[in-house]
Amino acid sequence: MSDKKTKKFPTRDVTLESGIPVKVVYTKDDVDASGGEGGIGQPGDYPFTRGIHPTMYRSRPFTMRQYSGFGTAAETHERFKYLISQGQTGLNVAFDLPTQCGFDSDDPMAEGEVGRVGMAVDTLADMEEAFDGIDLDKITVSLTINGAAIVLMAMYFALARKRGFDLSTLRGTAQNDILKEYVGRGTWVFPVEPSIKLIGDTILFCAEEVPKYSPVSICGYHIRESGANPVQEMAYAFCIASAYIDHALARGIDIDSFASRLSFNFDIYGNLFEQVAKFRAGRRLWAKIVKETHGAKNPRSGVLRMIAGGGGGGLTIEQPENNIVRGAYYALASALSGTQTMALCSYDEAFTIPTEKAALISLRTMQILQEEVGVCDTVDPLAGSYYVETLTNEMEKRIVEQMKKVDAAGGIVKAISEGYVQAEVSRQAYEQEKALQEGKARKVGVNCFRLDEEAPDVAMHPFREAEARKQFDRLAKIKAERDGAAVDAALATVRETAGDKSVNLMPAIMDAVQAYATVGEVMGVLKEVYGTYDEPLRF
Amino acid sequence: MGEKKIRILIGKPGLDGHDQGAKVVVRALMDAGFDVVYTGLRQSVDDIVDLARKEDVDVIGLSIMSGSHLPICEKMKARLDEAGLGNKLWIVGGNIPAADRETLCAIGVDGVFATGTPFDEIVNFIDGKVN
Lengths: 539, 131
What we know:
- The structure holds two protein chains of two kinds.
- By secondary structure, chain A is α/β, with parallel strands linked by helices.
- Chain A has 20 helices and ten strands.
- In chain A, 47% of the residues lie in helices and 7% in strands.
- By secondary structure, chain B is an alpha/beta fold.
- Chain B is built from five helices and five strands.
- Chain B has a five-stranded parallel beta sheet, sandwiched between helices.
C-alpha cells in the first residue's frame, strides 16, 4: 500500500513497550531495511530463530507446568497428585518464603509466613512426603528456589538417591538465579560474590552427576514483572546468564559440557507480536553469544530452552474473570514463540495463590491450545510475516544495545551490586504505572471499560493456620529423633568447606541434609561464613 | 513554600520480596514533593518502628503483598504504641482484599491503598491528614 492510500485515513501512533514504533503496514522492504531474512534459518539449526528442534511440537508439544505448592508437604503432595491426574506433565514447586530465604519454620523471622505462599520445607522429610509415590525419573520437576537453592537441590538429589533413582535420569530445573533476585523477587540471602560461587557449584556438580538436569533457570520473568520492558527483560537475562558462564569457565569447566543445560524463564504479557519477536530474536542472539562470546564449539550449546509463561503482571484485580481470557492470549503468544514449557498465572492470582479450580482453568487453557486450535501443527507459523520478521530484527538490535549499556555500567555484577539495574527497572515500572493512570496505556477494566464493582467475587485460597502449626510439631519431632552428633559433624564439614572457594559445597550439603539437618541450619552456617546481602537503595 | 516537607517512611515488612509497588510509590511520593525514606526489603516490624523514630517521620507506610497484612499490622500497632508513635499517620498498601480493609482500620491503620490506587489519591490523603 502506498503512503498516499493510507494517508486518507487517520491513524493513531503506536509504540511498543520496547520503544519500537509500529507502522500501519509492513512489506518486504521493511524486512530488508531492518536486516533482512538472512538470520531466519531452519528450525533446529543454528542460530535457532525458528525454534530449537527441527520438528518442535509435532514431535513433542510444550510441557505444561503450573507453579504450585502451599502449606505443608502433605497438602502440596495432594495438589501434585491432582495436577498429575489431570494431565499435567511437569511439576513446578512453590516454596514458602521462610524456606526461600533460608529460615526454618520455627524461626522468629518466619512468623505468619509458614506455608503461606508455598510449601514449607525444613528437612528432607518434607521433600520425602511431597514427592511420595511420584516417579522422579518420569516427571520433570522444577524447584522455584534461589537464595537457598543449593540446599533444596541437595535435598532433591538426596531424596532421589534414597529412593533408588540414578541421578543421571533426573530431568528438571532449579530456578537458582540469584542475580535476578537482587533486581526483582527479593529472596536473596548472601552477598553477590559467594552467591555466584554457589551457583557455580551447582553447575559443576550437575555437569558431572546430573547431566539432564538444568541447574539454573535464568529469569527475565521477574525482572519484567518488576517493571522492565521486554528488551530489558531479555538483555538483563542474557547478561546474567553470561555472568554465570564466565564464573563456571573460570573454574576450568568446558563451555560445551554445561551451556546447553542452562535454561531460561521469560514473561508474557502485553503486545502479542512484540512477545513473539522477543523470543525469536532472543533465541538467535543467545546462540550467537554462546558461540562468539563464550567460545562454544557445539552449536547446540547455545540453544535457548525456555519456560515462557503468562505473567501476573498482565492480570488485574478488576473484573478478574477477564484474566482467564488474558491467560489464553498469553498462552497463544507462548506457543507461537516456540516455548518448551508453559505456565500460566491463574485468573485469581492478582489476589491469592490459585485455588484448585483456577489452576485447573489454566491447565485447560493450555490443553485447549494443544488439542483444538492447531498451534502445534507446524513449526514457527509466524515466520515470514513481514511484521514479525521486521520486529524480530529490531528487537535483536535493541537487546544488543541494552546489553552494551550494562557493559558501560561496568558489567552486570557491578551494575546489580550497586543498584543500577534495580533503579533502571523501577524507573520503567514508574513510567508504565503513570502511563496507565494517565490513560496513555490501556488496560480493560482498569482505565477503560470499568464496572462498578464493590469487591470482585473471587474465592480466596484458604490459608490454614492449623497446618502451619503442624509444621512446628513435625520439625520438633525430627530434631528430637535425628542423630544429633551426625548433624553437627555434617554441619561442621559444610562450614569448613564453605571457607575454601576452590571446593564444591554440594557433596557436603547433601551429606548434611541426608542427616536431616534443616534448611535454616545449613543456611545459618553459610551465613556465618559468607555474611548477608546489604541492599543498595538507589532511586 | 518554605514549609518543612512532610517526611514519609515506606517499609517492607516480612520476607516478601515483591517491591515493585513500594518502589513505584516511593518515586511517586518523591515527585509529589515529600521527603521519602525507603527501608528496603525484609524488615522486621521492630526495624521499621526504630527507623521511623530515628528518621522522625510524619507518615509511616507499609507495603505488603504476601497476604500477611493482618498479623503484621497487629504487631505493628503494638510496637508503634510502645514507641510513642501511635499518633503518626499510618498507611498500608499492597495486595489487600477489600474484605480486610475494615479489620485493618479497626487495628489502627489510617488509610488502606490497594494495588492500583491512583497516586493522587495517596498524595491527597497524606496532604489532607498531615497538614
